[in-house]
Design goal:
With 134 residues, the chain is mainly alpha-helical.
Length: 134
C-alpha cells in the first residue's frame, strides 16, 4: 500500500510540474566561443523576426502579431516561393525547425551569421543540440 501511494505521489508530481520544467534540453550547444546559443522554437522565431526587421522587412503590422503580417513580409514570402508571410511563418515553424531539431526534444543551437550583402539578418546557422554535444 505504501509503495502504491508513493508511486501515485510521484505521478501526480510529474503531472503538476510546470510546463517546461520537465522539458530540459538533453545536451548543449558547442562551446561558448562558437557563438551558438540554445533556443526553443519560439525563440528561434523571435530572433528570426528581429533579423527580418534588421534587413528592412517589417514582419507584423505596427509591430504587433495580432495585426497580421505586413505587405512587405508577404512580398518577401512570395519572392522566395512561399506564397506570402504566412508561408514563411509556416516554413520556419515546420520544415525548417524539423530539419534542425533532429533529436526532437524542442531545442536547437542557433548562431547568427556575419551580416553582409549575402547574409541578411534573417540568415542563421542551426544545429541540433543533441547531435552538437553528443
Amino acid at each position: 500500500m505504501r509503495a502504491s501511494i508513493g508511486l501515485l505521489a510521484a505521478i501526480l508530481a510529474l503531472l503538476l510540474m510546470p510546463a517546461g520544467a520537465a522539458a530540459r534540453p538533453q545536451a548543449g550547444c558547442p562551446n561558448d566561443s562558437s557563438g551558438f546559443i540554445l533556443v526553443d522554437l519560439q525563440t528561434w522565431w523571435d530572433i528570426s523576426v528581429e533579423g527580418f526587421e534588421e534587413a528592412g522587412i517589417p514582419v507584423y503590422v505596427g509591430g504587433d502579431p495580432a495585426n497580421g503580417f505586413t505587405d512587405e513580409f508577404d512580398a518577401f514570402g512570395a519572392a522566395v516561393g512561399l506564397v506570402d508571410g504566412q508561408g514563411v511563418y509556416d516554413y520556419i515553424w515546420g520544415p525548417q525547425w524539423d530539419v534542425i531539431d533532429k533529436g526532437g526534444d524542442g531545442w536547437a543551437c542557433m548562431k547568427p551569421r556575419q551580416l553582409s550583402g549575402g547574409n541578411p539578418g534573417y540568415n542563421f546557422n542551426g544545429v541540433d543540440n543533441v547531435s552538437a554535444a553528443g
